[in-house]
Amino acid sequence: MPQRNDDVTRRRFLRDGLWGACLAGIGGVAGFAAHKGQKVDWLWQIDPYKCTACGNCATHCVLEESAVKCTHVYGICGYCEICFGFFDPEPFDIHEGAENQMCPTGAILRKFVEEPYYEYTIDRPLCNGCGKCVKGCNAFGNGSLFLQVHHDRCENCNQCAIAAACPAQAFRRVPADQPYLLKSVDHV
């Protein structure tokens, strides 16, 4: 009796099944590669308009030295004679002595420009992210100093320890191609 061509033999069934599995695997790899190519990486960042400068950024980061640092927007403020991010609100005297400064590590530098202007800059390696300068700056309505996660230091943990401890829920995920949430002159 002649064998019919449409009969499914064991060999043919295995060959076709293997061929189908190979095609499905190739399709899966191609789909995964295409998805990965379009994947947007997300990073943690602090919304400066929600942050209360509570001090948790200095103590809750998994790094020994926090990835959160003070950031300064000169377009808002930056050349005052008396900066309340630099000076204690009730300083003993108006000079750069440590007893008059808000920053416990001396990370804000004050440089004379011309009468009556001084330039204030952040020495990032000294900044511990405590936010004392931010509180002082915000207390008088300027808001040019605020905290940001610096991504050259951040480990981008799946669950950020600082975000979990943030009482203001100011941490949020941002696209990696726009990693900073900066204050603007228009918003203040």
Automatic annotation (TrEMBL):
InterPro entries: 4Fe4S_Fe-S-bd, TAT_signal. It comes from the Bacteria. This is 4Fe-4S ferredoxin-type domain-containing protein. Residues 42-61, 118-137, 145-176 form the 4Fe-4S ferredoxin-type domain. It comes from Anaerobaca lacustris.
